[in-house]
Amino acid sequence: MAYYPVYDVTQSTTDRPETLGTKEKFWLVPSAAVGLDLTSYLFKIGRPHTGENWSEKVCCEILHYVGMPCAGYDFAVHGTDAGVISRQFVPVNGQFVPANMLLEGAVKEYDGQLRFRQRKYQLSTSLNLIKLRSIGAPRWTPAKFGALSALDMFVGYRRLEMVPNGKTRG
């Protein structure tokens, strides 16, 4: 039976806090002894009895298995906190723009600072923002699925069925 490693990042250098999202998290650079690349990782502390840590790992493993791009996750501990780490995926000169910032600019009554129970937007608004932002963006073309747009990926990677010969139909 294969097990996934649990990295002890307690002795890592804490880089900066991360305030986006609902979970407690921070950026770190692991010490050389950990055995990871010496780059920034996000350490997300899982809330007890929620399954947050294993569910992030399961999701990324399933997506990797089917060939879909996603953030990678590994199990980790920092002191007494159990969580997951995810290597920074935004390029050095890149910029991460969270959806709440886009929605705040597009929806008059959307409160981008509200962390829970956000009700002032509709799915159609999110879909339209993706369409507008992905004009001219390169399409992602995995071998298993053919070309997928950002919109295809957001709404569930299209409805795909695997057929016995390994091909797909959507």
What features would you highlight for this structure?
about 170 residues, alpha+beta, Phosphorylase Kinase, domain 1, six-stranded mixed beta sheet, two-stranded antiparallel sheet, 4 helices, 8 strands, about 25% helix, about 20% strand, disordered C terminus
Describe the structure.
The protein is of the alpha+beta class and 170 residues long. Strands 1-5-6-4-3-2 form a six-stranded mixed sheet, covered by helices on one side. Strands 7-8 form a two-stranded antiparallel sheet. Helix content is 23%, strand content 20%. The chain has four helices and eight strands; from the N terminus they run ββββαββαααββ. The radius of gyration is 18 Å and the shape is globular. The chain has two domains: 6-87, Phosphorylase Kinase, domain 1 (2-Layer Sandwich), CATH 3.30.200.120; 99-169, no CATH class.
The helix content, as a percent range, equals: 10-25%
Overall shape: it is globular
Total domain modules:
2
Strand order of the largest sheet: 1-5-6-4-3-2
Number of strands: 8
Low-pLDDT segments, ≥5 res: 157-170
CATH topology of the largest domain: Phosphorylase Kinase, domain 1
Layout: helices, strands, pairs:
Blueprint: E1 6-8, E2 13-17, E3 25-29, E4 41-45, H1 52-66, E5 74-78, E6 81-87, H2 99-106, H3 123-133, H4 150-154, E7 161-162, E8 168-169
Parallel strand pairs: 1-5
Antiparallel strand pairs: 2-3, 3-4, 4-6, 5-6, 7-8
